[in-house]
Amino acid sequence: MRKVLRFLSMVLAAIVLAATLGTLVPRPLWPAASAGEGTRHILVLKNPIHTDIAIPVDDAVRKRFHFLVDAGLPSDAPEVRYIVFGWGGRAFYLETPTWSELKAVPVMKALTLDASVMHVDVAGAIVEPHPDVAGFDIGDDQFTALLDFIAASFQQGPGGPIVIENAAYSSFDRFYEANGHFNALVGCNTWTAAALRTAGLRTGWWNPLPVSLGWSLRLYN
After folding, report:
1. Phi, psi (degrees; rounded to nearest 5) at 97
2. Lesser CB count within 10 Å: N end or C end of the chain?
């Protein structure tokens, strides 16, 4: 029993060390050359375990993601100000709409290996400043690169992105099949971090939790 406890303590210490270094070591190590004036304001939204990226809409964004309208998501409604994108584990996302519905199987899949999905939501005005909202100004080229990264995360079928039928939390969100596999080491927050790096922002080297991603974003941007 003592050996088991010692082993578990070592594993926990290794995870804490990795998370600390993952926050404090920037990625990329050196700042990129100045990309010009930040004309686009994007938002990173967080809750205790998950982060999303809110993209401000204009005619070009609505046109690029018009497949959302085809699935019944009102992204072209005039009151919509943001389209919110998140990537995550299929079982946890689809089977846990609220914390009260948390089940063992989705948790086990999230800790081991699961298929992935894209979750897309629409929002009106989002209040800033707010503890759960971080805003960043990026240039047009970086904004385009971010949209490219998000679009490439959708799994493509013969007719484009594959909507998951009868899977939604409300009338204002939809789920789509996504590329890649989800696990505890490469999860929703590492996807967010990778997306932000394509937009010219610096993150920590490994950010598995919203708190570590938020700290690194504040440190290096």
Report:
1. -65, -30
2. N
